[in-house]
């Protein structure tokens, strides 16, 4: 057995429990709890004139009905705007229940609490809300004309406007560089709205015992929910616990905090003195959670005869939906990370973040990057096509060289930190990808095309995460970190890190995430940050515990700590395996209060011998127990990268698009667990194929989401996703002790661009929109072309 587990394809330890139905998801909890349900707006834009709850009062099992007017001032306030930005001049968030105006179909208006969900839904159906219907704003280009307004005080529906510019040589601006370049192209790209569809929807369950509030939420960020709930309900933080139980997927949507329900359900539990639970249904997820993507991009590019980009000028309209709880993080990620692995002359990007009467937009896996990559990669293909050059060659002509790291892209991120790429080797990555997919030997045939797409992704953002590690007298290692897990395999990888750092078998390590009782300070799981930020924090905490273990063992063995090693959970003198003490014994020695409750303690007490009468039981500067806590706070993001290629086939009659092969080369620095990273990439690619070919939110001109069910919102099955062929390149990050970069969003980011590239290759005309259904392709085939 080895204890060097970092880098090994260890089987996911959580899977047997989850796959055999032992998982405990939100709706498995609180079977006796009262059920909450919501009356949600059927209109995209309307004034709430009156709510008549009378007809619902006779429903058997009804416990309470609440409108905005019933909420105390603290609870009824607009939800927080989590990430403000100076460019977001008109940030707007919703009230937990509509106060006077509803701004999208699905906005909560009334909360009902009843004995069970049936009774709660029956009561909802009988409540009569009198709406004065207002003109809805739907569609980006219509919205900016400002004929109707989502928020009366936001002219032109523009919540934020930002221009960012990186000048080229001699301070030349991008517009000038485009104008004066030997060749220029201009085009428009359309990326439709989509959304994350975790198998388990959102949900909250709350218990109040008269002093403490315990909240379970299917969330990506339990510590932030805790702070939000404490603030809204006026409770001191230590009286609120928030626990994320098993979470059946999040993909970004469960990072919004607090959701209205996360405030209202705990408040109702406190007010009624009863347990209350709400579990979202699928329709609610469609119309009242959050969406993403949804951009129109206007691109102008100037380049030379070799395809080198001299100037790039991009204007983006970003559809923000009705509210901006997450600020403008999505369009900022698009604009700042659009350049990918390329070094281009001069860059100007301008975006307007636009309100529409649709579901709000917050980060969804990839968070603005798929849109940016679509733009950059379409640009590369268009340049290659115009010059009659190989598409991979044009990309290579623009790459940042392997000797140019750290490389400052010139952009500044949301938090004011510069975007500096830490490491990478893009030419080598391209070489590996071409080999993997057989780029140079691809045989052309009618209706078959090959496509390519590259990206760079800032991962592992701060501000911090922490890890706590405790070794108990049975030799077991208990690891906890505050961020949450939604299926990424954290129980396995964090155990791998701890087992490697401490020299213990992985079977002895257990991991807890997302429970504020175990770890109170944390940020959350998003932006592919858990491996980098929590992973390094856990490693640092382990190193503290290891040092302490060596100090105590050195004392017991009368050796120098520098001569000690830990193997298989036993501390021993290097080269002298008999001079040894197990970590279980060290754990007992670490606590001078040694009642012999068990055999280990009795043995260890004997081992320690008599107390040294001239020393205090706990030495100065030492703490009892074999445990340690540390935090890791990254100075800036670490930049993972990847390149994907696909071979597609398009049907000449039905215009159906089939993905025949899909290849990925990926670099997330040092791999903790290659099998888990591959799983993350495969899942991401499947999600990306959905975004490229099937998934779209279709709003009609009245602001009704017309495909709000799995009957009409298509997702790929296993039959639509080919085997994903994956190769890894490891360029360790110099920024963190473990040399890792993130991997959780990588798979999804370039897929739309890659499929567009391949379909364009197969069909011979430009593909400037995503997703691309057979009917879209059919219409493009038959459309008149200049
Ligand atoms: N990993 C590794 N070696 C590396 C980097 C990562 O072994 N060098 C492992 C990590 O330890 C972790 C996994 O790969 O087990 C993903 O790591 P990371 O990139 O840190 O991403 P996070 O754990 O922070 O997960 C968040 C990311 C995001 S942002 C979305 S959205 C997403 C995703 O993860 N949502 C998911 N993957 C998901 N997977 C599932 N099953 N469900 C979701 O909701």
From TrEMBL:
Ranges for domain Aldehyde oxidase/xanthine dehydrogenase a/b hammerhead: 20-135
InterPro entries xrefs: Ald_Oxase/Xan_DH_a/b, Ald_Oxase/Xan_DH_a/b_sf, Ald_Oxase/xanthine_DH-like, AldOxase/xan_DH_MoCoBD1, AldOxase/xan_DH_MoCoBD2, AldOxase/xan_DH_Mopterin-bd_sf
Identification of the protein by name: Aerobic carbon-monoxide dehydrogenase large subunit
Enzyme nomenclature, EC number: 1.2.5.3
Enzyme class, first EC level, given as a word: oxidoreductase
Chain segments carrying region Disordered: 607-627
Alphabetized Gene3D superfamilies for the sequence: Aldehyde oxidase/xanthine dehydrogenase, a/b hammerhead (3.90.1170.50), Aldehyde oxidase/xanthine dehydrogenase, molybdopterin binding domain (3.30.365.10)
Keywords: Molybdenum, Oxidoreductase
GO MF annotation list: carbon-monoxide oxygenase activity
Species per Swiss-Prot/TrEMBL record: Actinomadura luzonensis
PANTHER family reported in the protein's UniProt record: ALDEHYDE OXIDASE 1-RELATED (PTHR11908:SF132), XANTHINE DEHYDROGENASE (PTHR11908)
SMART domains: Ald_Xan_dh_C
């Amino acid at each position: 057995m080895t204890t060097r587990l970092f880098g090994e394809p260890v089987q996911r330890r959580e899977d047997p429990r989850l796959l055999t139905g032992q998982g405990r998801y939100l709706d498995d909890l609180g079977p006796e709890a009262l059920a909450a349900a919501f009356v949600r707006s059927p209109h995209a834009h309307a004034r709430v004139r009156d709510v008549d709850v009378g007809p619902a009062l006779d429903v058997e099992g009804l416990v309470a009905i609440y409108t905005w007017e019933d909420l105390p001032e603290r609870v009824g306030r607009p939800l927080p705007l989590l990430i403000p930005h100076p460019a977001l001049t008109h940030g707007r968030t919703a009230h937990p229940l509509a106060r006077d105006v509803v701004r999208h179909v699905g906005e909560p208006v009334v909360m009902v609490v009843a004995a069970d969900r049936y009774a709660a839904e029956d009561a909802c159906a009988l409540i009569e809300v009198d709406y004065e219907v207002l003109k809805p704003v739907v569609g980006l280009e219509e919205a900016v004309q400002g004929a109707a307004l989502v928020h009366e005080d936001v002219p032109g529906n523009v919540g934020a406007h930002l221009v960012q510019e990186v000048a080229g040589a001699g301070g030349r601006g991008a517009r000038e560089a485009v104008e004066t370049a030997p060749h220029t192209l201009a085009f428009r790209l359309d990326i439709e709205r989509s959304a994350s569809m975790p198998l388990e929807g959102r949900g909250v369950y709350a218990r109040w015992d008269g002093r403490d509030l315990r909240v379970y939420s299917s969330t990506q960020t339990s510590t932030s929910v805790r702070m939000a709930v404490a603030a809204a309900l006026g409770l001191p933080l230590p009286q609120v616990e928030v626990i994320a139980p098993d979470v059946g997927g999040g993909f970004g949507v469960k990072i919004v905090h607090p959701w209205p329900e996360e405030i209202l359900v705990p408040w109702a539990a406190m007010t009624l003195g009863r347990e209350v639970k709400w579990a979202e249904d699928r329709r609610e997820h469609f119309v009242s959670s959050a969406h993403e993507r949804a951009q129109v991009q206007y691109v102008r590019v100037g380049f030379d005869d070799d395809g080198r980009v001299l100037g790039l000028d991009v204007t983006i309209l970003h559809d923000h939906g009705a509210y901006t709880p997450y600020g403008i993080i999505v369009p900022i990620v698009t604009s700042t990370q659009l350049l990918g692995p390329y070094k281009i002359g001069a860059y100007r990007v301008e975006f307007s973040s636009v309100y529409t009467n649709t579901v709000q937009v917050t980060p969804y896996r990839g968070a603005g990057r798929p849109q940016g990559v679509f733009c950059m990669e379409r640009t590369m293909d268009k340049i290659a096509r115009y010059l009659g050059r190989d598409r991979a060659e044009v990309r290579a002509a623009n790459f940042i060289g392997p000797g140019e790291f750290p490389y400052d892209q010139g952009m500044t991120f949301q938090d004011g930190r510069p975007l500096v790429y830490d490491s990478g080797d893009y030419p080598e990555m391209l070489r590996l990808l071409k080999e993997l997919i057989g780029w140079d030997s691809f045989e052309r045939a009618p209706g078959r095309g090959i496509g390519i797409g590259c990206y760079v992704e800032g991962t592992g953002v701060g501000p911090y995460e922490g890890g706590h590690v405790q070794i108990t007298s049975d030799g077991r290692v208990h690891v906890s970190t505050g961020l949450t897990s939604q299926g990424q395999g954290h129980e396995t990888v964090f155990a791998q890190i701890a087992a490697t750092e401490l020299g213990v078998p992985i079977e002895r390590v257990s991991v807890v995430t997302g429970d504020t009782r175990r770890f109170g300070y944390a940020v959350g799981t998003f932006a592919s940050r858990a491996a980098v930020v929590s992973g390094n924090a856990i490693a640092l905490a382990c190193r503290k515990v290891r040092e302490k273990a060596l100090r105590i063992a050195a004392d017991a063995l009368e050796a120098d700590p520098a001569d000690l090693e830990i193997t298989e959970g036993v501390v021993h003198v290097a080269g002298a395996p008999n001079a040894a003490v197990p970590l279980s014994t060290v754990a007992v020695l670490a606590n001078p209060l040694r009642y012999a409750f068990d055999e280990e303690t009795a043995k260890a007490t004997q081992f320690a011998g008599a107390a040294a009468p001239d020393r205090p039981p706990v030495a100065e500067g030492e703490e009892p127990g074999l445990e340690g806590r540390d935090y890791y706070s990254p100075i800036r993001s670490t930049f993972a990268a990847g390149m994907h290629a696909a071979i597609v086939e398009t049907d000449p009659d039905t215009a159906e698009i089939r993905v025949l092969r899909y290849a990925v080369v990926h670099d997330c620095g040092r791999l903790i667990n290659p099998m888990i990273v591959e799983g993350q990439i495969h899942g991401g690619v499947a999600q990306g194929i959905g975004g490229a070919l099937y998934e779209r939110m279709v709003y009609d001109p009245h602001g009704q989401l017309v495909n709000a069910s799995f009957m009409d919102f298509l997702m790929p099955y296993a039959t639509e996703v080919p085997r994903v062929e994956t190769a890894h390149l490891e360029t360790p990050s110099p920024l963190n002790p473990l040399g890792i970069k993130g991997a959780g969003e990588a798979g999804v980011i370039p897929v739309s661009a890659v499929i567009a590239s391949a379909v364009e290759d197969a069909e011979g005309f430009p593909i400037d929109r995503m997703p691309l259904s057979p009917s879209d392709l059919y219409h493009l085939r038959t459309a008149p072309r200049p």
